[in-house]
Amino acid sequence: MTPKLARFIDSGVVATPAILVDLDRVAANFAALRAALPDAAIYYAVKANPAAPVLDRLVGLGSRFDAASIEEIRACLAAGAAPAALSFGNTVKKRSAIAEAFARGVDLFAFDSDEELAKIAAAAPGAKVYCRLAVSQDGADWPLSRKFGTTGAHARDLLLAARDLGLVAHGVSFHVGSQQTGVGAYQTAIGQAAMVFSDLRARGIDLRLLNLGGGFPTRYREDIPPIAAFGDAIMASVRAAFGNDLPDLLIEPGRAMVGDAGVAVSEVVLACNRREDDDRRWVYLDIGRFGGLAETEGEAIRYAISAPGVGGDETPAVLAGPSCDGVDVMYRETPYRLPAALKSGDRVLIHDTGAYVTSYASQGFNGFLPPQEHYL
Amino acid sequence: MTPKLARFIDSGVVATPAILVDLDRVAANFAALRAALPDAAIYYAVKANPAAPVLDRLVGLGSRFDAASIEEIRACLAAGAAPAALSFGNTVKKRSAIAEAFARGVDLFAFDSDEELAKIAAAAPGAKVYCRLAVSQDGADWPLSRKFGTTGAHARDLLLAARDLGLVAHGVSFHVGSQQTGVGAYQTAIGQAAMVFSDLRARGIDLRLLNLGGGFPTRYREDIPPIAAFGDAIMASVRAAFGNDLPDLLIEPGRAMVGDAGVAVSEVVLACNRREDDDRRWVYLDIGRFGGLAETEGEAIRYAISAPGVGGDETPAVLAGPSCDGVDVMYRETPYRLPAALKSGDRVLIHDTGAYVTSYASQGFNGFLPPQEHYL
Hints:
Two copies of one chain form a homodimer.
Chain A: H1 3-10, E1 18-21, H2 23-36, E2 40-45, H3 52-61, E3 64-67, H4 70-78, E4 86-88, H5 95-103, E5 108-111, H6 114-123, E6 128-132, E7 140-142, H7 152-164, E8 168-173, E9 178-180, H8 185-201, E10 209-211, H9 227-242, E11 248-251, H10 255-258, E12 262-273, E13 281-285, E14 305-306, E15 314-320, E16 329-339, E17 347-351, E18 372-375
Parallel strand pairs in A: 1-18, 2-3, 2-11, 3-4, 5-6, 6-8, 8-10, 10-11, 13-15
Antiparallel strand pairs in A: 1-12, 7-9, 12-13, 12-17, 14-17, 15-16
Helix pairs in contact in A: 2-3, 2-9, 5-6, 7-8, 8-9
């Protein structure tokens, strides 16, 4: 948590549940990403936190944007982003969304299937397209499964078809999985991408774009490699695979841009022991899995949690949300410890919640409204 | 799907994604529940679908209401429910929520821990309280885990403490788990509850209320026992456990009241094959796990799905949502079949989605807005 956020909490004006985001930390993360990968264009993954103040700040810094939907494209344009600074990165798009984006000047579209390619050719004639490869996501805490991406051989055929449909076969992309903590995850993927480049060069198509995707981690409870280590590993792999003929590079950081810029301020609703043979204290917060902490599903993302101002001994704790839903439990298996004196009304902070929290929040499950958002 | 909903869809005015609910079916379900358990007061579990038209209709039918939050209490009162017709059924409540409910005339509160009891005693002096027991939830498709409820011995101590705190020790409750398809699930639970009644009678406290909870199923893909079978099994167990001195009975149906009154209208965004060695077609809809279909987590609730108007052979299908999130996949393991000719732009209906859909929907994950709601 940054000093600015700590001061705002201390001021006592925050009603819970709330998400606070320090925009200066977002700017610092943007600078660190640029320094780590100076050869790559930065396309912020809007889905991580689509709030207007975040987009405004990033537009001012010269960021570009990766959008998952026409609603995100509209939000970026409203924040002042140039259409040429946008990539429509979801490989699954309605034809109406493609057409509206194209009409507004967006010219770069992702795809990974024949049907999507046909939609883009019809709704955005002549646009630049890149094909998403399916690559290994070992080492990611929030992998993206087989929902997206295709094989190198199919990508080659699809990009040839793109040219025949009058589109610009512009490049390839991949995604190594979100909260990817292994710097080596990129090496194989970059090699696969380079093979598509050389296959297509032999067919008369010069691809230009290598989209390295997102997945760069933020620090939760465990240390992660510095972003510079990812930059070094990626550039070494790119040079090994492409030699001196480097493609245009693009990255789509989301979590690494805003995750550690945020903190959730929550209130304990109830703290009690549930069974005599279990020394763990059940702590029910006024934010839960359906109030934004969706990435605690399967306890995949393990946030640092603190209770400032509550002292004394700690006991093992189970963390649950406020709803009547039995699956609304954040941590039951992961060991957490909280003060034994913690009681209803006390404040609990959930750290590094700037990414993938606010937008997941339900519109009103069990009547609970989404957390209030403060951008400072 | 009811004929009224089918006509509304055929009229062609529905933009997707949308949830349509037939209020006449809600009324029919209310009548069926009343007929199946004429001795039980019906407290609709608002969390299943808190829309004002549903609450209005149920107020008109004489229903009572089980609320999970102060927001739900306010919604019921706004719909015209009498405060005496409300139960604040969440065992985890902010003290401020208890106080507001009590000030508005609500007089019946659930609890299952010392701390909650102390909050109720302080914020709702003299109110009626009932203690929730933890019981087996075998047979439920959406169990409620160990998040709620306590042992019979602890419930006895807590109800004695309630009396000493000036509250009315009014009864006990339990919940056999949501979408509970076993009619025998109640027998053991009712026996446990009866033991608390007799323990407390020996201590000079006459409990009055046996809250049988919710969990009554709705029909998804598999047949379920008729609601009358649950009524018969429950009343047989109550008579066996309580003899002629029957307690006041209360049920909290949610899913059984509104589930089969609703249908989701969705559009195919993309249909494609993902791997050459997999004959399953990936069908991406414009509604997914974060657009309301949250109960497909772990493929727990398996909705019936159809594509009216699309004919021809069927193939195995994987069903996924529209977002860039890899976990936004509804069914990958459960066998589903959809027409091989299904393509982007076609309509797909997801049946029996009147309960536990709209309120789960995220406020805008990936930019996608919650489904539109139509109450007919």
